[in-house]
Amino acid sequence: MPAGRTVEATMLGKLDWSAIPFDQPIPLIAGAVVLVAILGVLIWVVVKGHLPYLWHEWITSVDHKRIGVMYILLASVMLLRGGSDAIMMRIQQAVAYQSQGYLPPEHYNQIFSAHGTIMIFFVAMPFVIGLMNLVVPLQLGVRDVAFPTLNSVGFWLTATGALLVNLSLVIGEFARTGWLAFPPLSGLSYSPGVGVDYYAWSLQISGVGTLVAGINLVTTVLKLRTRGMNYLRMPMFCWTTLASNLLIVAAFPILTATLAMLLLDRYLGFHFFTNEAGGNVMMFMNLIWAWGHPEVYILVLPAFGIFSEVVSTFSGKALFGYRSMVLATMAICVISFMVWLHHFFTMGAGPDVNAIFGIASMIIAVPTGVKIYNWLFTMYGGRIRFATPMLWAVGFMVTFIIGGLTGVLVAVPPADFMLHNSMFLVAHFHNVIIGGVLFGAFAGFEYWFPKAFGFRLDERWGKLAFWFTFLGFYVTFMPLYVAGMLGMTRRLQHYDVAAWRPWMLVAAAGMAVLTIGVICQIMQLVVSIRNREALRDRTGDPWDGRSLEWATSSPPPVFNFAFSPDVRGEDAYWDMKTHARQQSLEHEVPEYHDIEMPRNSPTGFVCAFFATIMGFALIWHIWWMVILGGIGAFATFVVFAWRDHDEYVIPAEEVARIDRINLEERRSLVSMAGAL
Amino acid sequence: MNLLDPQGPVATANSTILVDSVFIMLAIVVPTIIAILAFAFWFRASNTKARFQPDFVYSGRVEMVVWAIPALTVILLGGVAWIGSHQLDPAAPVPGTGSPVRIQAVSLDWKWLFIYPDQRIATVNTLTVPAGAELNFQLTSSSVMNVFFIPQLGSMIYTMNGMVTKLNLRADNEGKLQGLSAHFSGDGFPDMMFDVNVISPLAFPDWVATTAKSDAVLNEESYTKLMQQGIERGRPTYRLEDPRLFDLIATQHIPPGPGPELLSDAGRPHSGGHDAR
Predict the structure, then answer these.
(1) What is the nearest CA distance from A412 to chain B, expressed in angstroms?
(2) Over the Cα atoms of chain A, what is R_g?
(3) Mind listing the pLDDT tens digit for each residue in A408-437?
(4) Where is this region: Disordered (chain B) (predicted)?
């Protein structure tokens, strides 16, 4: 090795110009477009002088509402990236019949790996965590989450992971192993490139972010409830948040440990999962699914919570069988940890093991079924208003039952022996993740948007978005069920079987309909922002809501509530409203107090900045930069730990001024309601 | 490759369980979906005929029914799962006519090697079996994981390096079927489809005799060449030198197959799957 290359290797590790795919136009153009867009936004921000505002009000914010909004923004942007991948895959499978299609295997394989990784870790996760962040402290009647600065750290580390995944588009490559990177394929022997390293380090860094978010939300629900908010008075969404975050705290360390072992194999020549020297690939399968199965419930439980809120609010009734729902939620939380083996019935375990895990998996269908029936009876005897969130909820109930049916089907081992890894399975998990998690995220987005921003979303575009997404889902994924029944397996870059072709064409057409749905969703946002004055919500309670988040103004003041609400039963705000209408007044003239709130802190952003450097350097073996990033992140933490002031005081007069505006609006609402 | 057009007893039993399970669940699912749509429609706010019952938020009877319905369904399906798992254990022999045929399947990057140790022959990407006979498969992998699957014969099973999995099947009707790998294994993965020729038990010995006359010999040396990453377009056949070859592979006496060769491009290595076309 010449001396020049040695110096370069020390300075740049494995990185050189060949890392940039000049020979592949698609990622290069995509990367360039993204880069231009980012630069454009940055220049616009700087030129218009928005930078100080962004820095003080958003980037360094430790306000749970702002962090929640940023999580959802991240998820929405990544949804477009993951969706583009999906479009490319559907087009490839539509054209690659008896031909190579337009994507060579090494590119196609990156796309489906990135699609899965992005959709789970950087769309579904941040979306639900964002909604929980935004709503749960409000529903509990408190001023913030338990650890506000940690909350910001969690968000920015998640963003770091997303950034690294996107960086792989233009510098190097992403994993070509599928979204769970099974060894030995993901080991150094069979994947010598940086793709798996991008995958693993992105998930390690964002995994830390998810874990701290989980710890934060569990602590918030357990320790920070307002007066009278005992466990059995919490809104359903708080319960599902608790269950979901307990699962995060229990499951994510397994993922971290598993990926750490994979990385040790790849970086330091260990043999946890290699073919040689006693490595055991079946161990990886078990470990990754011991995290992976609870992960499914981490995502879908909050969605169940959202639907509980939405169905109850828009039916004008309390949730039917509340205690039964609590029991079902916690049952799912516990059982979901005992079923992971159903992901590999076909690996050769004996019939006893297969049958027991199959039956355990079916048992989860019982509490899930109970939930469906309780939503059904919540609608029974209600006065249902079909606003957009309720459309998503009904669409979910119908779609999710079908996904549940096919899910129980693949839990029957002999049926799974034919359906494992097939397109049927692909259809099944999209059925539950789109029909469950994504519909839930959209319902929550439509439902709580007025709370977050103080104006409603346009209903016409919202309903169009629902119908296109709903129909698009069926046209895209029902054909995949059929293809699975015709023996088609997943992840095929090309195929020669004539019988599969028509179904791939239909699925591609469905993808076009889904895309229109997404466009409608974007249009809804644009139109609503334009008409925001007409759509303004001055009452803080646009849907006639039942839980405490509707008791404050929209958007809520930074301290959420001028007074800690006093809760006397389930549906706390509904009780207050009923009470207030009877007495024709909402409050006596209260005495205001100073409120202490946590100071903004750049800790999260700076930490993530150094984590990004460290992650990138680890991927490319640039060791000096790894040390630099590590020291930087640690120093940021030390500086934060030695801070002198972490709170500031909002004086009572300021609280009073803000609260009186809110009260005026509400009084006029109550008197108007009285006049009617 | 239609799963509902089974060509052997295992596939028949699998697909029967599949279809039965769907119908058991549809009995619950269809009424539930209808109820959701009906309730949502009838109790719409604009329907003045619907009775508003805001206080109907708990009913012990309803709760009992809604816990019981899914529980009963699951008890029924759980029975199906338990019995089915035992009856259709892939490791359990499937009795047939004539003497059983032992086949040792090895997944390579990216082709299938089928070794017939008793007949001292081997084939690549084509599996020839006599109709009606008991087929005992032993499976392993030369490198990464794959899944051996012939949809119309039933049950699939993983192949893993250094390990042997077992599968028993039977093909009842003569004809051509297709098999594939059902677990992603790298760039050449889509080309791991293989032909399955189910021939008459009388023709099978002739086929064996013809194949045994093959010029090509499969031994450690030719196997090592075969397991290099790449796609096999032809359907080569071999005379098997040592019937213990499979054991040498499964016990890693022959080391696992190599991955892609590293070219100058360290970040984005190319591999045979792409170059082969």
Answers:
(1) 5
(2) 25
(3) 899 999 999 999 999 999 999 999 999 999
(4) 256-277
Q: Which sequence spans correspond to the domains of chain A? A: 1-49, 50-544+590-601+644-675
Mean pLDDT value across residues A534-550: 88
Distance CA A123, CA A206 (A): 12
In the stretch 99-158 of chain B, residues with CB closer than 8 A to chain A read 143-145, 147, 149, 151-152, 154-158
Give the tens place of pLDDT for each residue, A477-491: 999 999 999 999 999
Question: Which pTM value belongs to this model?
Answer: 0.91
CA gyration radius, chain B: 26
Q: Looking at this protein, which amino acid is placed at residue A284?
A: F
Angle (CA) A371-A374-A380 rounded to 5° is: 150
Distance to chain A for B112, nearest Cα, Å: 16
pLDDT score of A671: 61
List the one residue out of A130, A196, A180 whose CA is nearest residue A158.
Answer: A130
CATH superfamily, domain B101-257, is: Cupredoxins -  blue copper proteins (2.60.40.420)
Chain A contact for B228, CB < 8 A?
Answer: no
pLDDT value for B267: 52
Q: Is B82 on the interface with A (CB under 8 A)?
A: yes
Residues of A in contact with B4 (CB under 8 A): 485
Whether chain A has a CB inside 8 Å of the CB on B50: the answer is: yes
Amino acid at A298: I
The CATH fold of domain A50-544+590-601+644-675 = Cytochrome C Oxidase; Chain A (1.20.210)
Residue type, A12: L
In SS3 terms, A436-499 reads as HHHHHHHHHHHHHHHHHHCECCCHHHHHHHHHHHHHHHHHHHHHHHHHHHCCCECCCCCECCHH
pLDDT tens sequence across A238-257: 999 999 999 999 999 999 99
The Cα A579–Cα A521 span in angstroms is: 38
Give the integer Cα–Cα distance in Å for A339 and A354: 10
Domain ranges of chain B: 9-47+59-87, 101-257
Task: Please list every residue in chain A whose beta carbon sits closer than 8 Å to the beta carbon of residue B268.
Answer: 18-19, 21, 106, 172-173, 193-195
Element (H, E) at A160: helix A148-167
Q: Is the model more confident about B34 or about A570?
A: B34
Q: What ipTM describes this predicted complex?
A: 0.91
B251 in contact with A, Cβ within 8 Å = no
Closest Cα in chain B, distance from residue A324 (Å): 8
Spatial CA neighbour of A192 closest among A111, A267, A117, A259: A267
Residue A91's H or E segment, with its range, is helix A64-95
Amino acid at A305: G
**Mutation test of the interface with chain B: which of A185, A236, A391, choosing the one with the most B Cβ atoms within 10 A?**
A185
